[in-house]
Write a structure and sequence with these properties.
Number of helices: 14
Number of strands: 0
Radius of gyration: 19 Å
Strand content: under 5%
Number of domains: 1
Oligomer: single chain
Helix content: over 70%
Length: about 300
């Protein structure tokens, strides 16, 4: 029973929705912005789960070695109903949000409109738009760019949107602060490394599909030493430079370094092949740990 629940939450991508909400709350607290409305988090959760499930909902034949595709094929009707329910929830949430801010949207400067549409637009082109014949050029098939694209969209959704939507609700001009920008970079690098870890899981498939991911191009050892660890250092370094220069509390700084230490530790463990549930629970779980560390450090210290 426990395994069935875990598979439902992890394979069904609900855990991604939970992580998105947690990271968004973390970004609000770290940027000293009030939390968003209940409907905003419902919208963020629903959109995240729907987006990630899209890649698997159409599975009609499953590789017996791919537990995730086997699970989707076995639970196809359940996931179709889930997608329908989440879509209804997303529409309702979008309605309640837009009915209060639509007049403010009309008054928004172009710079805010650019931020509002840029991240969903990149997310759409990640899969490609089949009707416009862009699918074969989708960003997902660009192996080296794929993790940065995912990191960019995730960081924008949880770091920029959380404050941007508050500014729209209060009819204020949103200006990206230096701290907000560094927080965006930190989150982007963190999630990019997680994506590269997943590329390690898919090495054999990507190699056969001639998808030139980092691990396919340079091998596992160089990917860990020369790509993943440096990206961790960049992400953590951008945060440390600002926090130390602005005399943040020592405990606040130390707690925020925990997720990056764990990230490097997990990166070391990638030398040994892991199960799909390991990747989903442990690697993606680092996003939730990061959010909790950020919330605790900025709330208590």
């Amino acid at each position: 029973m426990r395994n069935k629940i875990a598979s439902f939450i992890l394979f069904g991508n609900y855990f991604y929705g939970i992580c998105a909400v947690a990271l968004s709350i973390e970004a609000n607290i770290q940027q000293e912005t009030p939390l968003n409305s209940f409907w905003y988090y419902i919208l963020l959760f629903s959109a995240t789960v729907i987006y990630y499930t899209k890649a698997y909902i159409g599975v009609t034949t499953a590789d017996k070695n791919n537990k995730r595709s086997v699970w989707y094929l076995s639970n196809r009707q359940l996931m179709i109903r889930s997608q329908l329910l989440l879509t209804i929830m997303m529409i309702i949430a979008a309605f309640f949000i837009s009915k209060d801010i639509w007049i403010h949207l009309l008054q928004m400067p172009l710079a805010q409109w650019f931020l509002l549409i840029s991240f969903p637009l990149v997310a759409i082109f990640y899969y490609g738009i089949e009707s416009l014949q862009f699918k074969k050029y989708n960003l997902r098939n660009n192996g080296w760019m794929k993790p940065f694209v995912i990191g960019f969209v995730w960081s924008g959704a949880v770091t920029i949107y959380s404050v941007l939507f508050h500014s729209i609700e209060t009819n204020e001009v949103y200006n990206i602060t230096l701290f907000g920008f560094l927080l965006f970079v930190k989150n982007m690098m963190f999630i990019t490394v997680l994506c590269i870890m997943f590329d390690i899981k898919d090495f054999a498939y990507d190699y056969n599909q001639q998808l030139k991911t980092f691990v396919v191009r340079v091998g596992l050892r160089k990917t860990i030493y020369y790509i993943m660890i440096p990206l961790c250092i960049i992400g953590l370094g951008t945060f440390l430079v600002f926090t130390i220069s602005h005399h943040f509390a020592v405990m606040r700084i130390l707690i925020n370094t925990i997720p990056f230490i764990l990230l490097i530790t997990v990166a070391w463990s990638m030398y040994q092949r892991k199960s799909i549930l390991y990747y989903l629970a442990i690697i993606d779980g680092l996003m939730l740990i990061k959010a909790l560390c950020g919330i605790i450090s900025f709330t208590l210290f």
